[in-house]
Amino acid sequence: MAVHSAKTIGSPKDTARALITNVGWLHFFWSEYDKCLACMEEGLVAARADDDLLLVGMGLRLTAQVSKERNNLAQAKKLLQEALEIFKTAGDDYQHLITLGTWGSLHRDLRDYNEAESSMREALRIATGLKNSEELQSVLSQKLTKIMIELKRLPEAEVFNAQAESILVQLRRQVGVAYCKLNRARIVEARGNFEQALDYAKEAETLFVQFGDRREIAADLQRIQEKAAKLKSTTTEGMVAAP
Questions:
Q1: Widest Cα–Cα separation across the chain
Q2: Mean pLDDT of each 10-residue bin along the chain, 243 residues long
Q3: What pTM did the predictor assign?
């Protein structure tokens, strides 16, 4: 409807905005990537016709995210580099930090942890200086938590996870809190305390069942349960065998 209205009144800017920030984003959310790319292609033509750099940057970023989902990481990197340059030139800190976060996620996929961490930290630094950016701060803190867990820097993972959870509790974002509890389970799991990890994972599962999608935790829960059961079995066998 928004796209039709914009085309009817002949507004390239409104057409681009509807395609890039509305319809295209919804197709991305629904994993309809071909439809998303069609919206981005048309939206970018309209945005460039209107010389709207910010919309061009947003369209490039979402196109890059589709490439990332399809594991075309080289193409995603190229598009994100272009988007970053646009937002730097335009001086839009908000869009710049969102793109930096996406850039960091891409480099995490590339296992370039130095660049991933550097980008995420810079994005978080920018976010803490902006108004109404608490939710973005929580997202970036969660992403840094995952990186720290993968690098086995667990004390730092705990700090970032606590920052994210504190924000999300205040914002009453229960699914976000569930992710933080799941990350807490992963941190404890990495320390070898599988029974405590299982307790945290079950807390996360309860929240996912109430407010989100239980599939988000299924693989983690199964893995931690198996480790806890194995540990319990080994401990029991040792007690039986002891003189």
A1: 87
A2: 47 89 94 96 94 95 96 96 93 91 95 96 92 93 96 97 96 92 94 90 87 76 82 53 42
A3: 0.82
